UniProtKB/TrEMBL annotation:
InterPro entries xrefs: 4Fe4S_Fe-S-bd, Macro_dom-like
Lineage: superkingdom: Eukaryota
Protein name: 4Fe-4S ferredoxin-type domain-containing protein
Residues annotated as domain 4Fe-4S ferredoxin-type: 250-280
PANTHER family reported for this sequence: DUF2263 DOMAIN-CONTAINING PROTEIN, MICROBIAL-TYPE PARG CATALYTIC DOMAIN-CONTAINING PROTEIN
Region (Disordered): 1175-1196
Gene3D superfamilies from the UniProt entry: Leucine Aminopeptidase, subunit E, domain 1
Length: 1228
């Protein structure tokens, strides 16, 4: 049988096609000899002479076939002669020496009998049943040139057409191949990898998967097997588990036919005592856990366990506390950091391994409750103790205090910002779009230099995202604010002559909000009637009737007979309400209501006696007199007063808030159209001016507002300095800002009645503070304490209203303004450079209790949100779904989606609603948990009382808050899927780690078409409900769905006999096979090759691109920790397509290393998406902690075939050549 003549070589090896063919020729020689009953063979160095076959490789192929035929022949002799064909490039050492070195005197022992399908011994090939053998056949198909490395081995069509090598006989007989480092052997026999999941493989019955991977045999106990140990489940394949488990009626009846097809047992939970699904009843029914059933209050609300933890001698505790803590499992407050080795502790507690904060001790978010409740920090407990002062604690901004205590949201978000639907009819998404397009068109028309790709610099966007509204006022108004407990619009001040308005101020005062009983509807209604009567009595006693101010020169007012009768009636009403309230409130709280009612009534009279503030007729036309005026950023409006009030950022996200570039009055006067010519022409009529003003408004709860505002500021700055370019900087914007009147910056229009809890800081001149009344000073200290600054420059009590401009008329006031403005500038710039992790997004509102009689519509519809997403991202969402996220304190609220506004006066016959009710926690004792039903239903919010009475909902749950931190803002997600009509309510944020309850139902399109739902409403029941960060998304937000570390295993169970190791970082897993690190590291192309990848990956290991965060670990990949910081820009990073940057900084949900593109530096695809996924020849290396790079490379080189040309090889710079051949230097 002739060899190949002049076959193609790869170095000193036959190319794949010729290696496969040569081995088959040798195999045919042996088969023919056996067929003719010869017991000995005399062979030659097949083709190693004139035909130029490499003798080393041919000798290896001979040995491979000899091992296959071991036991079939008594002796094999090679007759080899080095003749004139020796010493050439393919056989520099001749032919004799390679054969002697490999085969001389070798005795091959026959393999043990085998029954593995598709294996071969001698000439016999076992068929797929593992019993029948095929006839001896020289060749009945074309040879696949890729041999055992063929990627299409499992392709039936390909397999029918081409002949492939058999499976490895060593694996068939010994279970493991000893020749995995032998290239010829690996190319000559198919090596199926053992499935790493063993009997637990979910694809064990998949034919294609079964052809590629080895799986264990069936358990001999069949359906009777009750073993749930991990080792047993992996060792054998098992029958499927019955869905009903041990509760199955057929199992209880011993139905043999059913029991032969299913197993009935409870499996061990794969997470053991680290299970975060421990509160799920469905999960507990399916899996057994090594701890008792959990306390439903753990981890945040179990008072008994808190006492248990803090008791020095627990044996002296009350028995009911001990029984509770020993009968129920609790979540350990230290989580993965726990170092308590006590057996009882390990037996009774669950250790939830939350992910470590990537910044850990360098974390800058330690004052953020959500961050601390989501990530583990090495020096901070996962579950911190509850601070008794809640969010009224003055130390809650200090990291050292917050890392020890968590703070309930009781006061900070409880201030009610009344809702008047002031932005009704305004399409903020359309406003944004029109602003952007106007400026882009103007830049084109004027031939300005545009922004590169119209991308706004991040620092300008962050400035707009972080600046806060600043309000200025004089001393008279400031004292009124302190006494009323609110910052008020001009219109609201004028309404304080009405008793019901004053009563609202009294009940919304910070002192009253501390009275918990006043948050209950019935008590609050009686309190409202009581305070109204008190105010009316005070007004009447002072002669302040109908808003008319009594003549101070006429002496004390003498009440008329009618007034006297009214006073008598009021006294009866007051006495009646006092009788009720004295049983509901403490004497101290009732006295506070009386005192505060008189104080605020007196302040209201004084406010009308000494009117102050600025008012313009155009403000009344445009409606801005109904809002609180502010500047978004440093406020240079000295003509408003010398006291600066800085509001919290949240207030800009209220549905009634908005802001404009320039003051509203500039629209009426026409100056806006002169200074910003892209706006067009000045509207002539008042109605047209109002309409245009509404089209200039932006709202911070609408995505994309910052981009539109940024373009306006950039264009305004360029126009001011005549730059004729949009390429400006934040410094240039601020240069203009500090040199123009504040009416020419950003004007904020805030809700008309703002509680003091929305004030973040106050700057007041020392001389004005000294002139405040004692009551006002006490109020400042009690309410703000560390949140006000006494400025060492003099101000004036009542400011002159002229002249306008950025500079005050006197030096002392200019020094005062410069001091405050510089403080604000530094504060805002710092936030620009280090954006807050808790920056507010979406809508924010605190709703008063209305028992669902009132509802609030958001200024953004579903279709508007969709349009904004498409416009901002230049593409449609990938899926047909949207997600609504929001945060709530306490619950008892409804989020409603409807096809029409429920506030509309139109007929409601065609109104379709989807209501999502978040229940409040019900009354619970220390050990008995109770919760009202939360639900989803196709009904309006007004139907809630009836639905609650009958308890019939489309989907419901009364386990929705089990395990949750209900003391702080709870985050929820409503997922609406158009494809199948599924609506799902679930937890997001930190609570989603501990509670996995989902309320879900499938909508009937004939009854409720989800695609018709357009408007978003919120309403609440019998308590005040703060709602924050309500936003509509068209992609699931990964940051809002934290999970736990499923690979964590460093805390042992109580029954573990192994030494205990307590590491903050999870221990590294041992590799299942000893693979050689590939010297190309993450840049290896072969590992991704369809044809050559499987054989290469069976020998060499590569770093996983996701490092230790990988969710599906593969055998040939290593998963060592990648100790790199998170990129501060994360997914907005402009270097996200740079392989070196990706290796140096992490980005959420993205791999640490790019996949090497097969085209490398010749790739023609320059798209950002492609370059974000693939690298192109950049030599990025993953550092190994187990060995040095040089050792890895040397170990890899030792496994390669030595190139006969050594360091003089011409192909030494070829990466493809070097993957197969090593090149020793001369000194080696």
């Amino acid at each position: 049988m002739a060899a190949y003549s002049g076959p193609r070589l790869n170095g000193n090896m036959l190319a794949s096609k010729f290696a496969v063919g040569t081995r088959k020729k040798i195999e045919n020689i042996f088969a023919i000899a056996f067929r003719h009953k010869h017991d000995s063979l005399v062979l030659s160095a097949l083709g190693c002479g004139a035909f130029k076959n490499p003798p080393g490789h041919v000798a290896e192929l001979f040995r491979s076939v000899i091992e296959q035929y071991a036991g079939f022949f008594r002796r094999i002799t090679f007759a080899i002669l080095d003749d004139h064909n020796s010493g050439r490039f393919f056989n520099p050492e001749g032919n004799f020496q390679p054969f002697v070195a490999l085969l001389d005197g070798v005795v091959i022992t026959p393999l043990s009998p085998m029954s593995t399908p598709l294996t071969i011994f001698g000439p016999y090939r076992l068929l797929s049943d593992g019993v029948t053998t095929s006839d001896v056949c020289i060749c009945n198909k074309l040879l696949c040139k890729f041999g055992a490395t063929c990627f299409e081995l499992s392709d039936r069509t390909h397999a029918k057409e081409y002949f492939h090598p058999p499976r490895c006989p060593y694996v068939a007989t010994k279970g493991k191949c000893p020749l995995t480092d032998n290239v010829v052997h690996m190319h000559s026999f198919v090596h199926r990898a053992h499935c790493r999941y063993g009997g637990e493989c979910r694809e064990i019955d998949d034919e294609k998967h079964a052809r590629e991977f080895e799986h264990p045999s069936s358990c001999p106990d069949g359906g009777k097997c009750g073993s749930t140990s991990d080792e047993h489940l992996k060792q054998y394949r098992h029958l499927p588990l019955c869905e009903d488990g041990l509760q199955c009626l057929k199992f209880k009846r011993h139905d043999q036919a059913h029991c032969d097809t299913c197993r009935h047992c409870v499996l061990n939970c794969p997470f053991g005592s680290h299970c975060t699904y421990i509160h799920s009843k469905q999960h507990r029914d399916k899996y057994a856990h090594p701890v008792p059933p959990p306390c439903q209050f753990t981890p945040f609300s179990c008072k008994l366990y808190t006492k248990y933890l803090h008791c020095g001698d627990r044996k002296n505790l009350d028995e009911y506390i001990q029984n509770h803590c020993l009968d129920s499992a609790h979540i350990c407050p230290l989580g993965r950091n726990c170092q308590d080795k006590d057996e009882l502790h390990l037996e009774k507690t669950i250790h939830i391994p939350r992910y470590m904060c990537p910044d850990d001790d360098k974390c800058t978010k330690l004052t953020n409750e959500d961050h601390l409740n989501t990530y583990t920090h090495s020096k901070v407990p996962d579950i911190r103790e509850l601070c008794k002062y809640a969010d009224g604690c003055f130390d809650r901004r200090k990291a050292e205090h917050v890392t020890e205590y968590r703070h309930a949201a009781r006061f900070e978000h409880s201030g009610i910002l009344s809702y008047f639907n002031m932005n009704n009819g305004i399409n903020f998404v359309e406003n944004q779009k029109n602003m952007i397009e106007r400026i882009i068109q103007y830049v084109k028309d004027q031939k300005w230099i545009p922004l590169p790709s119209w991308t706004v610099p991040d620092d300008i966007l962050n400035w707009i995202r972080t600046v806060q509204p600043v309000h200025r006022c004089n001393q008279v108004i400031f004292e009124s604010i302190l006494l009323h407990g609110h910052v008020m619009s001009r219109e609201y001040m004028l309404n304080l002559k009405k008793a019901n308005f004053v009563a609202n101020s009294v009940l919304q005062h910070s002192r009253m909000r501390c009275v918990r009983e006043l948050q209950e509807k019935v008590v609050a209604e009686h309190a409202k009637m009581y305070v109204t009567a008190l105010v009316q009595r005070y007004f009447a006693s002072k002669g302040f009737i109908g808003g008319k101010i009594p003549d101070a020169t006429a002496g004390p007012p003498v009440p008329s007979a009618d007034i006297q009768d009214e006073l008598t009636s009021l006294e009866r009403d007051i006495a009646k309400q006092e009788t009720f309230l004295s049983n509901a409130l403490s004497r101290k709280d009732l006295e506070a209501i009386r005192i505060k009612s008189d104080e605020i009534a007196e302040a209201s009279i004084n406010l009308h006696t000494n009117r102050a503030g600025i008012g313009y007729s155009s403000d009344k036309h445009l409606g801005t007199d109904k809002t609180v005026f502010s500047i978004l950023g440093p406020h240079l409006g000295h003509y408003y007063g010398d006291i600066f009030i800085v509001f919290k950022r949240d207030i800009l996200h209220h549905p009634d808030a908005n802001f404009t570039i320039q003051a509203a009055t500039s629209i009426a006067s026409g100056s806006a159209f002169q200074l910003r010519p892209w706006l067009g022409t000045h509207p002539a009529t008042i109605q047209e001016q109002i309409e245009f003003f509404n089209k200039c408004k932006l709202n911070c709860s609408i995505p994309g507002y910052e981009y539109a505002a940024a373009l306006e500021l950039i264009a305004f700055t360029s126009q001011h300095f005549a730059l004729n370019s949009m390429n400006t900087t934040l410094d240039k914007i601020l240069e203009r800002w500090f040199n123009v009147d504040s009416h020419l910056t950003i004007e904020g229009h805030l809700p008309q009645l703002i509680p003091l809890s929305y004030i973040e800081h106050i700057y007041i001149p020392q001389n004005l503070y000294d002139s405040l009344s004692v009551t006002s000073q006490k109020t400042m200290h009690a309410t703000f304490k560390n949140s006000f600054t006494l400025v060492p420059h003099d101000g004036i009590p009542v400011q002159p209203q002229n002249p306008h401009g950025p500079k005050p008329p006197t030096q002392s006031r200019e020094d005062l303004q410069n001091f405050v403005v510089e403080e604000l500038r530094k504060k805002f710039i710092e936030r620009v450079r280090n954006p807050s992790w808790t920056s507010v997004q979406g809508a924010a509102i605190t709703m008063p209790f209305t028992d669902f009689a009132d509802t609030y519509v958001l200024p953004l519809t579903i279709s508007q949100a969709y349009q904004q997403y498409c416009y901002a991202n230049h593409h449609r969402p990938k899926g047909k779904a949207y997600y609504i996220y929001w945060q709530v304190v306490g619950g008892d609220m409804i989020l409603t989606l409807s096809n029409k506004s429920v506030l509309s006066k139109e007929t409601k016959s065609n109104l379709r609603c989807l209501s999502c009710y978040i229940a409040g926690k019900g009354p619970s004792s220390d050990t008995t948990y109770h919760e009202y039903f939360s639900y989803i239903n196709g009904s309006s919010p007004f139907q809630h009382p009836v639905l609650r009475e009958h308890g019939k909902f489309a989907a419901k749950s009364n386990q929705f808050f089990v395990g949750c931190n209900t003391d702080y803002l709870m985050t929820f997600c409503l997922e609406v899927q158009f494809a199948d009509g599924t609506v799902t309510l679930s937890h997001a944020g930190p609570n989603s780690i501990y509670n996995h309850e989902k309320i879900s139902f499938q909508s009937d399109k004939t009854q409720l078409d989800l695609e018709d739902l357009e408007y978003i409403h919120i309403s609440c029941g019998s308590r005040i409900v703060p709602v924050r960060n309500l936003m509509v998304c068209f992609e699931k937000q990964p940051d809002l769905h934290p999970t736990f570390d499923k690979d964590f295993s460093s805390i042992p169970s109580a029954s573990s006999k192994e030494p205990t190791h307590f590491n903050i970082v999870p221990q590294k897993r041992n590799k299942t096979t000893e693979l050689i690190p590939c010297h190309d590291n993450v840049n290896c192309l072969l590992q991704h090759s369809r044809r050559r990848g499987p054989a290469h990956n069976a020998v060499y290991s590569h770093p996983c691109s996701f490092s230790e965060l990988c969710a599906a670990k593969e055998a040939h990949l290593t998963h060592e920790p990648h100790n790199s910081p998170m990129c501060k820009h994360d997914k907005k990073c402009k270097q996200i397509n740079d392989p070196f940057h990706r290796a140096e900084c992490r980005h959420a949900n993205l791999p640490d290393f790019l996949i090497p593109c097969r085209h490398q530096n010749t790739c023609y695809d320059d798209s950002f998406e492609h370059r974000t996924e693939f690298s192109h020849g950049e030599q990025v290396y993953k550092k190994s902690s187990s060995s040095s790079a040089s050792k890895e490379r040397r170990g890899h080189d030792d496994a390669l075939i030595p190139c006969r040309y050594g360091s003089k090889c011409k192909g030494i710079n070829s990466s493809k050549h070097c993957r197969e051949y090593s090149h020793l230097k001369s000194d080696e």
